[in-house]
Write a structure and sequence with these properties.
Layout: H1 7-12, H2 29-37, H3 48-51, E1 56-61, E2 67-74, H4 77-96, E3 106-114, E4 122-128, E5 134-141, H5 144-156, E6 163-165, E7 168-171, H6 177-184, H7 187-206
Antiparallel strand pairs: 1-2, 2-3, 3-4, 4-5, 5-7, 6-7
Helix pairs in contact: 5-6, 6-7
Length: 207
């Protein structure tokens, strides 16, 4: 048995830091029409571009002091009120289809940004001001493969999977499509079955 030498460890002394990214697939017009037909295309109060206007960031490290590849963001006070209000409203759209009657007790605890990965996601932490419970959702660069995965999870899962697209991808997924599927089926059957479904969806929409 032999082991491949870790290139990151040898060249940058960064251990097993990820070195490859998944390819991005654009959302074509056929898929866009499908999303509109099923109510996935929603105009949102804050855009991905707006979140990029942060003033500085602080690296987030794990309990062992290692870089998590996430950064905690800070915004100019002149922009923060607008961004905070919009992010809370997006959470309400994800959770209650736009019922804003309960959002007075919600706030944005923090906004994190992932420096690795092709979708460069923002992770939004929403906190309940009454009991300090919190929840997360994500705003990412839209990628057709991720949209296919979320839609497939929505079809297969007994739970409702909520996501919206409007130039970018906003999702409230907790654990991801493949983890759900592998927990639901036997690993081999899941791999073969989901691969066939996923391929069929790609053929349908990509032609």
């Amino acid at each position: 048995m032999s082991f491949t030498e870790n290139k990151n460890d040898r060249e940058t002394k960064e251990g097993d830091k990820p070195s490859r990214k998944k390819p991005m697939f654009p959302v074509n017009e056929v898929l866009r029409q499908y999303l509109k037909m099923h109510g996935r295309e929603v105009k949102l109060p804050v855009t991905y571009k707006s979140l990029l206007n942060y003033t500085w960031s602080t690296p987030i490290k794990d309990k062992n002091g290692k870089d998590t590849l996430w950064e905690k963001l800070s915004y100019d006070s002149r922009d923060w009120d607008y961004i905070r209000e919009g992010l809370v409203k997006i959470y309400a759209i994800l959770k209650t289809e736009g019922d804003f009657s309960f959002i007075s007790h919600l706030d944005v605890a923090r906004v994190d940004y992932c420096t690795f990965g092709n979708s460069h996601p923002f992770r939004i932490r929403i906190v309940n001001k009454f009991n300090d419970n919190y929840d997360h959702y994500y705003i990412k660069i839209a990628d057709a493969s991720r949209i296919y995965g979320l839609e497939l999870e929505h079809i297969l899962s007994p739970n409702r999977i909520t996501f919206f697209t409007c130039g970018n991808l906003v999702s409230h997924n907790r654990f991801g499509t493949w983890k759900f599927v592998l927990n639901l089926f036997e690993p081999l059957a899941a791999y073969r079955g989901i691969y066939l479904i996923y391929t069929s969806i790609n053929i349908l929409f990509e032609g």
